[in-house]
Design brief:
The chain is an all-alpha fold. Helix content is about 45%, strand content about 0%.
Length: about 60
């Protein structure tokens, strides 16, 4: 988890609220991820903002891991 970026809950806490287009894009991406996991016969029972990471952790300024 250390190599992953902030989760959706942290992102919402930092920015306050998200725009409608951002929410729409995130919703589509999250549904796609859950569908892919279900296609592998895995049931996600803990779907919540804490469990969706956004981006990658940055090691220093501008560097991506």
């Amino acid at each position: 988890m250390q190599l992953l970026g902030p989760n959706l809950k942290q992102l919402m806490e930092r920015r306050g609220c998200l725009s409608e287009p951002t929410v729409a894009v995130l919703a589509i991406q999250m549904i796609t991820v859950v569908e892919r996991v279900h296609d592998m016969s895995i049931v996600m029972r803990d779907v919540k903002p804490d469990n969706f990471c956004i981006g990658a952790h940055q090691a220093g300024r501008g560097a991506r891991v």
